[in-house]
Amino acid sequence: MDYNAQTFRHRMPAQLRFSDVDRFGHVNNSVYFSLFDMCKTCYFHDVVGSDIFDRMAPVIVHIEANFITPVLFPDEIVIDTSIIKIGNKSFTLLQRAVNKRTNEVKCYCETVMVMMDTTSNKSVEIEEKFRTKVLDFEKQ
After folding, report:
1. Which positions ≥6 away from 84 have C-beta within 8 Å?
2. Distance (Å, rounded) from C-alpha 134 to C-alpha 136?
3. If you ran DSSP here, which 8-state letter would residue 123 be given?
4. Rounded-to-integer distance, Cα 81 and Cα 114, Å
């Protein structure tokens, strides 16, 4: 996929903490996943609404990151999020960590998630309400 061609409509600041960095001032790779998780949750809340998750929950089944250049403390980072594919039971998110000041992309993360029924713990088809809200948001 050509990450640079992707349009992102959801952006959120991600505050770095001193404890997120190693002794060289680099943000630890595991921290990126926490930041991406926080921003996924905000994307879902902002775009789809939280009530849809009363019956089902998105669960990560695959995640991969491409680290381009290090984030250094105290860089100001924003996380861009987009759902780039929706299937019957799964969808794919693309996220990127961007230096707010320079607009330099620091990392890309692609995540495949499956909708799970919160009662049966089994995968379920994505509700039309979720699909419609995401597609309406992403095509604006």
Report:
1. 1, 6, 92, 93, 94
2. 5
3. B
4. 17
**Integer Cα distance of 27 and 17 in angstroms:** 9
Which structure tokens are listed for 55? 């019956």
Sheet hosting strand 10-14, strand order edge to edge: 10-14, 77-86, 90-99, 105-117, 56-67
Q: What is the SS3 assignment for 3?
A: helix
The residue count for the chain? 140
Angle of CA points 1, 137, 87, to nearest 5°: 55
Tokens of 136: 């309406």
- What is the distance between the alpha carbons of residues 86 and 92, in angstroms, rounded to a whole number? 7
In the chain, the DSSP E strands lie at: 10-14, 56-67, 77-86, 90-99, 105-117
- Give 62-110 pLDDT, tens digit per residue: 999 999 999 988 889 999 999 999 999 999 999 999 999 999 999 999 9
Q: Is 95 exposed, middle or buried (0-12, 13-18, 19+ CB in 10 A)?
A: buried
| DSSP bridge partners of 91 | 86, 113
Q: Which of 1, 140, 18, 27 is nearest to 79 (CA)?
A: 27
| pLDDT computed for residue 15 by the predictor | 87
